[in-house]
Amino acid sequence: IGAGMMAGAMIRGLVSSNTCLATNLIASDAYKPCLDSLQSELGIRTTQSNSDVAAHADVIVLAVKPAQVREVCEDLHKANARALVVSIAAGVPIKRMAGWLPANARIVRVMPNTPCLVGELAAAYAPNEHCSPADTALVGSMLGALGTAFKVKEGDLDAVTGLSGSGPAYVFQFIEALSDGGVRAGLPRAVATNLAAKTVRGAATMVLETGKHPGELKDQVTSPGGTTIAGVHALESGGMRAAVMNAVLAATERSRELGND
Predict the structure, then answer these.
(1) pLDDT of 258 above 90
(2) Interior CA angle at 231 toward 230 and 232, to 5°?
């Protein structure tokens, strides 16, 4: 339910990874062009009626804006939907959704991020007490087809929001700043941006593939009295480490506030 950018990326990932057949998917959205695009590209069924989804689905993914979750859940309640409900709406706690859905609803709350659009999801998910081990495993396999996902306690999802949910924006800012530095040093913008993005991707791959602590990898390229340690010193002088930590904490706190509204 909801066929916007994030939902479309999830649908494409599930189909391309053969996790789910296109013929087994149905999507609803008030904005018909989104549905038409998915139908023509993938051959999935589409509808503008949430009750149609409720009538056919074993798993319902709520991919609507947080302000729309209550209305959609109440529609599902009226339809007496008994499907597993997977919500990717930020800041809407399971307890609140449970009050809008049929009694004993099986609910899994997910915090995804936008790299899902390129098959590099970094997400976490939390099931409620009514979910069976099979329900939890199913959601884990669905998300795993889109990237990486970790099962956590619901109380940890605010921190996940602050780190990986909001994190792409921090990284985009860092890439932009690297590029700006390259331009200031005399490089053409296109070259600087490409080098910056490839450097970030390569460094991230080294962390994931070597299993080494980022600090150890940093030390491997900081020769005594060299250029890299001079740059690292400038970053420390500018408070980069504290700024990034504070960004994660600020976004985490805002996620908690949204959950209490």
Answers:
(1) no
(2) 95
Cβ atoms of 41 and 68 within 8 Å: the answer is: no
Distance of CA 55 to the CA centre of its chain: 27
Contact 88/112 with Cβ under 8 angstroms? yes
Neighbours of 50 (CB within 10 A): 25
Report d(CA 183, CA 117) in Å as an integer. 29
Tell me the per-residue pLDDT of 183-199, one tens digit each, with 9 for 90 and over.
Answer: 999 999 999 999 999 99
The 10s digit of each residue's pLDDT in 16-43 is 889 999 999 999 999 999 999 999 999 9
CB 151 within 8 A of CB 131: no
Cα–Cα distance measured from residue 131 to residue 104, given in angstroms and rounded to the nearest whole number: 9
Report the distance separating Cα 78 and Cα 235, nearest Å: 56
Residue 139 CB partners (closer than 8 Å, separation 6+)? 84, 86, 108, 110, 125, 127
pLDDT of residue 144: 94
Both tokens of 150, joined, read 């970790």
How far is the C-alpha of 33 from the C-alpha of 202, rounded, in Å?
37
Indicate whether this model's pTM tops 0.85.
Answer: yes
